[in-house]
Specification:
Elements (H helix, E strand, L loop, with lengths): L6 H8 L3 E7 L7 E8 L3 E7 L1 H4 L4 H10 L3 H19 L6 E5 L9 E5 L4 E2 L2 H6 L1 H14 L6 E4 L5 E3 L3 H16 L4 H15 L7 E4 L8 E4 L2 E5 L6 E4 H11 L4 H11 L9 H12 L5 H5 L7
Antiparallel strand pairs: 1-2, 2-3, 3-5, 4-5, 6-10, 7-8, 7-12, 9-12, 10-11
Helix pairs in contact: 3-7, 6-10, 7-8, 9-11
The structure holds adenosine-5'-diphosphate (ADP) and magnesium ion.
Adenosine-5'-diphosphate binds next to strand 2 and strand 3.
Length: 304
C-alpha cells in the first residue's frame, strides 16, 4: 500500500503543488497507513484504511461488527456527520474531513484525507501524570454520554438493535471471537462456557451512548497542556456506557480527575461493578493484546 502513494497522485488529489510527503511509522502494528503531506497551501493527513479487507478476521473490528453491526463502508461514509456530532456534544475539535473514497481505485485501499492539526500525540503517561489532561478526558467522555439512545448499533443507526437484545448479542460475540480467534488458547477455552452463561444473563445495560472501545491517550493530540483534538474516531458505535468506562479503566492508572471531569460534564458517573469482570474478559478477547488474562481481569479498580 505504501508504494501506491506517489507525489503525482497526491498532486492530482489535492490540486496543489506537493512540497513534501512522508509515511508516519507508529512503531506498532496498526490498521491504517498514515501520511503527512505538506503543500504550498497547507498540511494534510492521508489515512489509507487497512481494515476494509480484514475486518472480518481481526478480533477488534470483527467484534465491533458482530456486536454493533459496525461496517467499514457505512462508518467511513458517516465520519463527517459523526465528527459534527462529537464536536457539538463533546466540545472537542476533530479534524475536518476533506475527501474520502471507499473504493480501492486510487491507493489500492479506501482512504480519508483530513486537515492536519497541530499538537503532539498523547502518551498513556501524559493522561496519568497530567491532572489537567486526565480531567479533560473525563469531561469529554461525560459530555458524550449525555446523549442517550434507545437502541444500540452503529453510529449512523443504519444498523440498530433493541436494548434487550444486548445480552444475547454479547454472548454470541464472545462465542464467535473465542472459537475463531482464540481456539488454541487453553485458558480461554476453559473459561468460555462460564463466561458465555454469564453473558446471556447480564442485566441489560440501561444507558447507551456513542462509545469508542479503543479510546485512550494515543487517539488525542495535546497542545499547551490542553487536549487539542480527537484525531482517531472511526471505531465509534452506540453501546453501553459502562462498557466504555470499563475499557477506560483498563487504560488508565489514575482515575480521580477523570471521574471528576466526567461528573462535572454529566452530573453522574455510571456504576460499573456489576458487569466489569465480564466486560474485561470481552475486552481481552477484543484487543488480543500481549497481556496475561489474569492481569486484565485483576487490573486496579479505579472507578468504585
Ligand atoms: N488530523 C491529524 N492531525 C495531526 N496528526 C494526525 C492526524 N491524524 C493522525 N495523526 C497522527 O497519526 C497518528 C496515527 O493516527 P491514527 O488516526 O490514530 O491512526 P491509527 O488508525 O493507526 O491509530 C496519530 O497518533 C497522530 O500522530
Ligand atoms: Mg489511533
Amino acid at each position: 500500500m505504501k508504494k501506491q502513494v506517489t507525489k503525482s497522485k497526491l498532486q492530482n488529489l489535492l490540486k496543489e503543488k506537493v512540497l513534501d510527503f512522508k509515511y508516519l511509522d507508529p512503531g506498532y502494528p496498526n490498521s491504517n497507513w498514515v501520511w503527512h503531506i505538506k503543500t504550498q497551501r497547507g498540511k494534510y493527513i492521508l489515512k489509507i484504511i487497512g481494515y476494509f479487507k480484514k475486518y472480518k478476521k481481526g478480533c477488534f473490528w470483527k467484534g465491533l461488527n458482530y456486536l454493533f453491526g459496525w461496517n467499514p463502508i457505512k462508518e467511513l461514509t458517516y465520519q463527517e456527520s459523526l465528527s459534527t456530532l462529537l464536536n457539538k456534544l463533546g466540545k472537542m475539535r476533530l479534524p475536518k474531513i476533506l475527501k474520502y473514497d471507499v473504493s480501492n481505485s486510487l491507493f489500492g485501499a479506501p482512504y480519508m484525507l483530513v486537515e492536519k492539526i497541530n499538537g503532539k500525540t498523547v502518551s498513556e503517561e501524559d493522561f496519568n501524570l497530567n491532572d489537567n489532561l486526565n480531567y479533560q478526558f473525563g469531561y469529554y467522555i461525560g459530555r458524550i454520554h449525555t446523549k442517550k439512545y434507545s437502541c444500540f448499533g452503529n453510529v449512523s443507526q443504519s444498523q440498530k438493535y433493541k436494548i434487550n437484545e444486548f445480552p444475547q448479542r454479547f454472548a454470541d460475540t464472545l462465542i464467535e471471537l473465542a472459537n475463531h480467534n482464540w481456539g488454541k488458547d487453553t485458558i480461554i477455552m476453559k473459561l468460555m462456557s462460564q463466561y458465555i452463561n454469564r453473558a446471556k444473563d447480564i442485566i441489560a445495560p440501561k444507558q447507551f451512548a456513542p462509545i469508542m472501545l479503543d479510546i485512550g491517550a494515543p487517539q488525542f493530540l495535546i497542545n499547551n497542556n490542553q487536549i487539542a483534538a480527537l484525531i482517531d474516531f472511526d471505531s465509534y458505535v452506540i453501546g453501553p456506557i459502562d462498557l466504555e468506562i470499563s475499557a477506560i479503566e483498563l487504560g488508565l492508572k489514575k482515575g480521580g480527575l477523570f471521574k471528576k471531569g466526567y461528573i462535572d460534564a454529566n452530573g453522574s458517573f455510571p456504576a460499573i461493578s456489576n458487569n466489569r469482570n465480564i466486560y474485561r474478559f470481552f475486552l481481552y478477547l477484543l484487543y488480543k493484546a500481549p497481556w496475561k488474562l489474569e492481569d486484565c481481569l485483576n487490573a486496579p479498580l479505579l472507578f468504585n
